[in-house]
């Protein structure tokens, strides 16, 4: 039942197919959907602008890649806290969901605007943590609210959200491109090169002998400011929606209470097998998101500071191609999922990742076009892996709210660990180590998925056996009943 007037939108709860939807006027619901999509475009922008500007941020805070990677780990901590907070706030206080989403965007926008002005590694970590907190609220709250609005018809809108993130991510490098200067040289000893201004003669001599390049400190302020302004603009729209088209709760929200992760009830009640699947799922969810964060964030640095020494302009094109392929991969799998089974899709995605990472290790540093092609192939195979695994697992286990929360936690852990490991390897083992890291991670994904797959196959075989036994017993009972009926008639 839809309760609406020109000024208010009433929220009612309706359980359809296990989904609870907030029923609204179609026009208002569509407006909120568009604004949510814009919010996720902004999330892609402020999340991935750090990739093409990473060498400049490193120079600003006088650090190396390993140290700045440790600072970026703080974003994952903030994301985890924001995910938990946003999920609870948007679940319990649905009438204020516009306020929570506006708050998350405003927090992220302020942190994004201040980042390029930061010259302290500790302060940068605090800003990135704040940025991650806002991102977490938007990710959890936006997903939950979109599903509530559309109910059983939420598939396309939810996919639109995740596609919007990819669009923002591929636009970020091009937004930064006009403002990027000369790439600062990496100083492995983490010492800053100082220029002593004694007189004109000595100044010229020092400058000509120096291998470090001074960058304009204002160069990267502009793309960060533009992204911050756009994010604040979307936040203002949410505030306007709350003021002029608020959601009015008709009755206290009813929750089923079945939000627990209950692996003992999975796979036909096989407790040990259920807990094994839970553990494997936790580790498996870490890898796709971790690889996405690490490779997407360090790809620009790899292209401009690695063996290829591409220009910043070419580096931004390479990163945009990566994110464009990432978005295309999700769209392609969304369409293919209507005709191809989930297990086949997962096997195809893992195979593509193995081929792409092997090619990156072998030929990735041979030329810029080869690096672009194989990075795009890697993005297309990696992007849909996480949602494909969850969709496939949903055939065998009950994907409850707490299980979804656990996968968010696993993703945050993956981003946390990979951010530091990628930075450490990049700094101390060289840029090429990033490619070997991706290949090793893909191989581990395959090793983790294999027991999950065989567990499902075993469950299907046992289920077919049980169904066969039951059908045999039913047939025998029917034959005995017919025989008894025949004797009675005689």
UniProtKB/TrEMBL annotation:
InterPro entries: MFS_trans_sf. The chain crosses the membrane at residues 34-57, 77-95, 101-129, 150-172, 222-245, 273-291, 320-338, 345-364, 370-393, 400-421, 433-457. The keyword GTP-binding does not apply. It comes from Ridgeia piscesae. The keyword Cytoplasm does not apply. This is Uncharacterized protein. Keywords: Membrane, Transmembrane, Transmembrane helix. PANTHER family: SODIUM-DEPENDENT GLUCOSE TRANSPORTER 1.
């Amino acid at each position: 039942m839809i309760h609406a007037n020109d000024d208010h939108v009433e929220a009612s709860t309706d359980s359809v197919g296990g989904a609870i939807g907030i029923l609204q006027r179609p026009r208002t619901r569509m407006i909120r959907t568009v604004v949510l999509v814009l919010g996720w475009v902004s999330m892609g922008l402020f999340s991935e602008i750090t990739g093409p500007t990473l060498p400049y941020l490193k120079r600003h805070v006088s650090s190396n890649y390993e140290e700045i990677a440790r600072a970026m780990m703080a974003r994952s901590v903030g994301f985890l806290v924001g995910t938990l907070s946003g999920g609870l706030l948007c679940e319990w206080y649905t009438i204020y969901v516009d306020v929570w989403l506006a708050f998350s965007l405003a927090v992220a926008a302020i942190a994004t605007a201040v980042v390029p002005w930061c010259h302290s590694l500790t302060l940068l970590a605090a800003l990135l943590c704040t940025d991650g907190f806002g991102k977490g609220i938007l990710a959890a709250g936006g997903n939950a609210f979109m599903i509530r609005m559309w109910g059983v018809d939420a598939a396309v809108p939810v996919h639109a959200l995740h596609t919007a993130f990819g669009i923002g991510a591929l636009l970020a490098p091009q937004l930064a491109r006009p403002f990027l200067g000369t790439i600062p040289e990496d100083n492995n000893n983490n010492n800053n090169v100082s220029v002593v201004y004694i007189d004109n003669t000595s100044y010229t001599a020092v400058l000509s002998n120096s291998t470090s390049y001074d960058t304009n400190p204002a160069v990267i302020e502009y793309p960060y400011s533009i992204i911050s302004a756009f994010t604040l603009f979307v936040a203002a729209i949410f505030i306007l929606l709350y003021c002029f088209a608020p959601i009015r709760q008709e009755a206290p929200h009813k929750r089923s209470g079945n939000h627990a992760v209950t692996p003992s009830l999975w796979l036909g009640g096989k407790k040990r097998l259920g807990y094994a699947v839970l553990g494997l799922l936790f580790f498996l969810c870490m890898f796709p998101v971790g690889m996405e964060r690490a490779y997407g964030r360090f790809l620009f640095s790899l292209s401009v500071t690695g063996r290829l020494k591409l220009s910043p302009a070419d580096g931004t094109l390479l990163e945009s191609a990566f994110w464009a392929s990432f978005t295309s991969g999700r769209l392609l799998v969304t369409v293919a999922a209507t005709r191809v089974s989930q297990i086949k899709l997962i096997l195809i995605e893992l195979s593509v990742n193995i081929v792409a990472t092997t090619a990156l290790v072998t030929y990735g540093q041979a030329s810029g076009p080869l690096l672009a092609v194989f990075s795009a192939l890697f993005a297309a195979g990696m992007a849909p892996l996480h949602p494909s695994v969850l969709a496939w697992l949903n055939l065998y286990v009950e994907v409850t709210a707490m299980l979804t929360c656990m996968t968010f936690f696993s993703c945050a852990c993956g981003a946390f660990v990979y951010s530091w490991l990628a930075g450490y390897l990049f700094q101390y083992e060289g840029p090429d180590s990033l490619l070997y890291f991706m290949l090793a991670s893909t191989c581990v994904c395959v090793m983790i998925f294999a027991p999950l797959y065989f567990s499902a196959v075993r469950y299907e075989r046992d289920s077919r056996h049980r169904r066969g036994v039951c059908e045999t017993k039913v047939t025998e009972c029917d034959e005995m009943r017919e025989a008894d009926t025949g004797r009675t008639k005689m």
